[in-house]
Amino acid sequence: MTETVRTGGCACGAARFTTRGEPDRVGLCHCLTCRKAHAAACFPFAVFRADQVETAGDLASWESSPGYHRNFCPACGSRVTNETGGEIEISIASFDEVGVFAPQYESWTVRREPWLPPLPLPQYDRNRGD
User: Fold this and answer.
1) Which of 25, 31, 41, 44 is nearest to 109 (CA)?
2) Burial class (CB within 10 angstroms; exposed 0-12, middle 13-18, buried 19+) of 57
């Protein structure tokens, strides 16, 4: 069986990533920090184990909450990865191929924009499992 390899990166192309295999989960986060960090109504992401992701190019980082690092391209400012607890989150919009992943759940729905209808998926008021 062949391992699936996918690529992606920032808007200017200076920072790139490669993933191997399938993500552990795919979700939408409506929390205020994700909304502001991505300048969007929500953050659509795929979660991989750290050993499934390789990055290339320079990345800058900031710690938005204890142990949660948001990595971005210092040239264009695009978010590239988020790292926490041995996992790496990648925006599904950062992949080169469109339509590869579909969300499996929504988190922080207490912050969802009122004009954005819920998807027919499991809904979590806050973090998954809280």
Assistant:
1) 31
2) middle
Topology classification of domain 5-101: 2.170.150
Q: Looking at this protein, which amino acid is placed at residue 105?
A: Y
Task: Answer yes or no: are the C-beta atoms of 83 and 108 closer than 8 Å.
Answer: no
Query: pTM of the full predicted structure?
Result: 0.91
- In terms of C-beta distances under 8 Å and separation of at least 24 residues, what long-range contacts does 68-74 make, across chains too? 70/37, 72/10, 72/15, 73/9, 73/10, 73/11, 73/12, 73/14, 73/15
For residue range 77-112, what is the model confidence (pLDDT) as tens digits? 999 999 999 999 999 999 999 999 999 999 999 999
CA nearest neighbour of 68 among 112, 41, 109, 31? 31
Q: Which of 7-11, 101-105, 126-130 has the lowest mean pLDDT?
A: 126-130
